[in-house]
Amino acid sequence: MLLADKASTLPPVARSPGYWATVWRRFRRDPVAMFALAVILTLVLVAIFAPYIAPQDPYKGMSLRRLRPPGTPGFPLGTDELGRDMLSRLIYGARLSLFMGVTPVIYALFIGSAIGIAAGYVGGWVNTVLMRTIDVFFAFPSVLLAIALSGALGAGITNGLVSLTVVFVPPIARVAESVTTSVRTRDYVEAARASGASAFTIIRVQVLGNVLGPIFVYAMSLIAVSMILASGLSFLGLGVKPPEPEWGLMLNTLRTAIYTQPLLCALPGLMIFITSISFNLLTDGLRSAMDIKA
Amino acid sequence: MLIYIAKRILYTLPIMLGVMIVCFALVHLAPGDPLVSVLPPDASAQMKQQLMVLYGFDRPYYEQFLRWIVRALQGDLGSSIATNRPVATEVFKAVGNTLMLSAVATFIGFALGTFFGFVAGYFRDTFIDKFASFLSVVGVSVPHYWLGMILVIIFAATLGWLPPTGAGPGGSENWAWDWEHVRHLILPAVTMSVIPMGIIARTVRALVAEILSQEFIAGLRAKGLSEFGVFMHVVKNTAPTALAVMGIQLGYLLGGSILIETVFSWPGTGGLLNAAIFQRDLPLLQGTILVLALFFVILNLIVDVMQTMLDPRIQRS
Hints:
Number of strands of chain A: 0
Radius of gyration of chain A: 24 Å
Largest interface: A-B, 45 and 50 residues
Mean pLDDT of chain B: 84
Low-confidence stretches of chain A: none
Oligomer: heterodimer
Distance between the termini of chain A: 55 Å
Structural class of chain B: mainly alpha
Largest sheet of chain A: none
Distance between the termini of chain B: 11 Å
Structural class of chain A: mainly alpha
Number of helices of chain B: 12
Shape of chain A: elongated
Low-confidence stretches of chain B: none
Order of helices and strands of chain A: HHHHHHHHHHHH
Shape of chain B: globular
Largest sheet of chain B: none
């Protein structure tokens, strides 16, 4: 029997676990990150099943029962300034708040990586034009840019999303550009090109395969910022408009009751805090599991 | 070195031009009539036309832009549509208050942040490190406008130690170094300091841990240098980066103060932006944002140049 034939009859070597399986195994051993993940999944579930969980109608108020403290029978977390059930509003608030915080980062992830990868892969004057334009947006502190844009565009969910997306495109593009530039000159890209792969194939296989991980983690780290900013816009009266339940907006409308019902006023902000710290801890865990520095 | 500084300054010019274009575009991005806040609802077409000409809105965009730039360079940012006062005067008065608040906040954040960062970096992976790292995560995760409200609830509403809003007694808008004004500054400044505290603590912790693992530290210890002497070496190696982060954070706070200023009714640029947005006073909005963004660009320039001067190892292309 020829050696080659013998080799083909041998049982296949056990596949070494893939990259993501390794990451998941390391991630699973990090109790803080796992806890953060559990909190986020719970929040997402609460947002999805809000109509089934919420005990009351979050829009229906009654002037007779305004600003009841937490612990009132029938209203476990009290009522807001229009007599609406606080618990139900916080539960429904998860929908809009998570949506407003996460969506801009997802949009920016697509737009920013497209710009960054194009600039990094093509190089030359295309890189210069794209990246110098991006630099202009870095001249604005992110909070100022978000407020300036949504202030000029006016309040509303769409305008809020647009402003926040514009804020997050430049940083993602910059990270995507620098990672792509460093990947482009590697030997394996050169080898792929020498073996006749088209630019599209190289970008899809070699560049995306190596670039998406770091960009994804970076984008994850922006969600915490985005949550605070999105709620901040609504807090200022930009972004989500009343009577929609959104944590930042609730914080704004309850501000007048700060002396009479302090505990009640603190609740929506606590939700923003819990969400944003969970995303930060999750990102930290993911970063060390994937062994990405900075 | 001088060539680098000159290059860096030259590089800033196109950025500044870009910033001006963005600020100018903001006004034209806004939906609706830019004069909506001054015109009475029953204004005649002729009256509207007169005002369009008066504010120059009837001109082509490039002409409006050039005229705006030339005037801005001379310190004239136009006048507020709502109050008719010159925008430049309003903005510079407000910038003083915002700068005061941001600078004090940055200083507190820097002091606490470097302390926590050093402690965490020195006692890496111990309980102290975990605690300090947790504090820095809290610092970057807490919605600071909410933290401001909590501090008002505790220290103003419940304990009554500090005033909840304003920058001075009787709604004073001009800063003075007396106890009454300082009392008003404490809550907003502490609230604001949480962000740079978290970021500086994270940066310093990573730096200290990295420096301590380098061979020259072992060398210093081997030659018999006291632990304090080693510490001084670590400080010297951390300083350029820590200071740079501090400078950039000051810029972020200056531009991002609007949320905290709203919570504390602080009479700064945040209040001005708020008024500009809700009265749809576009020249005021444009002018305030321009001044804040230019501040940020110049601050970044200064930080870069200073960092190069402090740390000659940095080779820049």
